[in-house]
Amino acid sequence: MSASASAWTADANEALSLSLVRAPEDKASLWSREVYEGFHPTFTYPIFGEEEKVYGYKDLAIELKFASGSLAQYLNVQYSERLPASSAVDEIEDTLAKFIPEGYYTDEKRFLERVEHDAANFKPFGEKIYSYSRTAMPVSKGKNVAIPQVLSPEDQETVDYEVYHASIWAPIRRPGVAHFKSTWKTPGFREFHRRMQLFVLLYIEGGSYISEDEETWEFVVLYEKRRRRSSPDVATYHFVGYSTLFPFYCFPERVRLRISQFLILPPYQQDGHGSALYTAIYQHVLAQPRIAELTVEDPAEAFEDLRDRNDLKMLLANEKFMREGFGPEAVSSNGGKVGGVGNGRTRRGVKHRTMRAGAGKMGPPAERTWLEKWRTELKIAGRQFHRLIEMLILKHMDPADERGNRAYRLQVKERLYRFNFEILMQLDKQERQQKLEETFQSVVADYKRILGHVH
Asked: What binding partners and quaternary form does the record give (predicted)?
């Protein structure tokens, strides 16, 4: 690119600024660390092309603002200079208009009036399926942030978060619980989805819009529910993130529910909200007799880690499962490990504290019938469940137990061999054994990394 062309070219990811705008009274309730305006997309290639560049402007600034609850949109394009119109100059508003619904604002005063109106009137669509509370006071961020479920409702700095499920399916009816059924035909829901789906393009690599012609899509949306300091009896809703789910037929009369898209917006990341949303989805799946299991479509590495951590914590907290798997001494009062697995024999002949032989179903090797019973009950997809079992055995296994380590190695390699059968069969025997050993070592190293984040 020539120097003259470069002067007129902007990085689309830097030029595009996103904001979740709150009404003035809601902004007054925020702490200084809470910044929900002026963040940037991770990807813009679905909109501006593979190079993610915008040509024809100097000092380009593209503002796309959303009402923090209803996601009503405001678009403003500013620049200091623009080249004369030509086929090479990007028409920014025309380009963005192909990806956002009609009716967006270009008058900021009118947009702020809409924000004020929606703050008082917007309510989530669908059925509330999960909630938790956090303190609004400054805390450390990170992937292992704990999510306290109960805080004092009298504390003005307690912030509630609620997860809502919307689909064409009627929820299970439970006494004393309000029930809703939200579909594309629910007033306002189709329009709301059209406004929020832009985030899929901006934050999920390879993400795309779903077809509105497919009416079986389900949606799980996470909101912050914030009380105003000036009026504690007034609570307003603010969009945090969402996931799309798609059901597939499962013989004879149930479905497998697949997580297709999953995102938490940048201002809310590293605060445990992704884990909370995943937990809400999983708990919803467990409560629905029509759903046989939860699966994930082509997960990104970060999501796969999130899924692994939360699934492991769930299994470790299940005392019946842990007791059956590792024996009666395997569970402490808080669900943690007391002993290990194996026969206690070590390379140096030293007796380590381990479970007695045959105390649990985990082995290794794990008892397959028992595994399948629990996998079905917990509604976890096959490959994921067996990976979790391998991690749990590794976590509890005495590294000095030769017999246990050999049985574990064979158990993991058998699964890897079946999973990669077609590729491995293209190699000769020696290469196949070498590749299987390399894969095993890589898998175990990754298991140890994941287990390092599970406490």
From this structure: Component of the HAT-B complex composed of at least HAT1 and HAT2. The HAT-B complex binds to histone H4 tail.
36 vs 331, more confident: 36
The parent domain of residue 347 ranges over 316-451
Same domain? 243 vs 380: no
The reply to whether 374 and 335 lie within a common domain is yes
In DSSP terms, 19 is beta-bridged to: 37, 65
Residue of 297, 372, 437, 438 with catalytic role: 297
CB 184 within 8 A of CB 149: no
Total tally of structural domains belonging to the chain? 3
Query: Does the annotation list 274 as a binding residue?
Result: yes
Structure pTM? 0.88
Q: What is the pLDDT of residues 23-47, one digit of tens each?
A: 999 999 998 889 999 999 999 999 9
Does 78 belong to an annotated binding site? no
Mean of the pLDDT values across residues 288-309? 95
Do the Cβ atoms of 32 and 136 come closer than 8 Å? no
Would the annotation count 263 as a binding residue?
yes
Is residue 191 annotated as part of the catalytic site, yes or no? no
